Amino acid sequence: MAIVTNDIDLSPGKLAAQVAHAAVDCALTLSKKSPSLLQKWLDEGQKKVVLRASEADILRLKAKAGSMKLCTALIRDAGRTELPPGTLTALAIGPAEDSKIDKITGQLPLK
Fold first, then answer.
1. What is the 3-state secondary structure (H, E, C) of 73-104?
2. Distance CA 8, CA 59 (A)
3. Which DSSP string do the residues of 18-30 spell out, in sequence order?
4. Domain range annotation of the chain
5. Are 70 and 100 contacting, i.e. CB atoms less than 8 angstroms apart?
6. How far is CA 35 from CA 6, 19, 96, in A?
């Protein structure tokens, strides 16, 4: 699950790159902390959904996911192309059971 900020205008390529950064970050984290959960996600087709929210909501969602012990990756841009350095662009949550992620993101619109 990735949530991208709707507070800034991202080109389609930039949006795709930021979501990919977030997904890879969570996958690498799980490879160390919970290899079996990562393998389950890989075996099930690596489901990804992209939603949108404000920066404030993204920070709130990260805290909520953290309190539920879910893997998260908050992505801030390096500032080499379209955005100033440090711009918050995306948050990944999971992989995890859909029911757990839905408790956090169920009200968000698709990107």
1. EEEECCCCCCCCCCCEEEEEECCCCHHHHHHH
2. 15
3. HHHHHHHHHHHHH
4. 2-105
5. yes
6. 32, 21, 12
- Arch. (CATH architecture) of 2-105: 3-Layer(aba) Sandwich (3.40)
Contact indicator for 85, 105 with CB cutoff of 8 Å? no
When pLDDT is averaged across residues 62-90 and rounded to a whole number, the result is 97
Which tokens belong to 94?
A: 């999971």
Burial class (CB in 10 A: 0-12, 13-18, 19+), 64: middle
pTM: 0.94
pLDDT attached to residue 90? 98
pLDDT band at 16 (very low <50, low <70, confident <90, very high): very high
pLDDT digits (tens, 9 = 90+) for 42-75: 999 999 999 999 999 999 999 999 999 999 999 9
